[in-house]
Amino acid sequence: MTPEAFKHSLAKDRPPVSGASALASLWWLKKGDWERAHAIVMDDDGRDAAWVHAHLHRVEDDQSNARYWYQKARKPVAVGALEDEWDAIVATLLAR
User: Fold this and answer.
1) Collapsing DSSP states into helix, strand and coil, what is residue 42?
2) In terms of C-beta density within 10 A (0-12 exposed, 13-18 middle, 19 or more buried), how is residue 87 classed?
3) Which long-range contacts (CB under 8 A, 24 or more apart) does 58-63 make?
């Protein structure tokens, strides 16, 4: 799946991915359901989920919590636009 196809899937009722909690979380976030997105990554202890978890806390403007999750993900703390980070995470996860 391409990032563009992933974005187009936002018109649907369910994420186009199964078993990929980090991507599903990003999908729900873009649909406006931060709580559901957060609940998904809370149940996943992988680095991809930690990266998305960090992004979610940036969206929430909880920078200290975001820094903690970037560290868990072994990623640098993002400082750019939230939309750009969302795009970058989606592209990276879909490329795997």
Assistant:
1) helix
2) middle
3) 58/82, 58/85, 59/29, 59/34, 60/34
Domain regions of the chain by residue span:
20-94
Q: What dihedral angle (degrees, nearest 10) is formed by the CA atoms of 11, 18, 21, 12?
A: 10
Whole-prediction pTM value? 0.94
- Counted residue by residue, the chain has a size of 96
Query: What digits encode the pLDDT tens for the residues 43-76?
Result: 899 999 999 999 999 999 999 999 999 999 999 9
Q: How many CB atoms lie within 10 A of CB 84?
A: 10
- Whole-angstrom Cα distance, residue 15 to residue 43? 17
The three-state (H, E, C) secondary structure of 49-83, written as one string: HHHHHHHHHHHCCCHHHHHHHHHHHCCCCCCCCHH
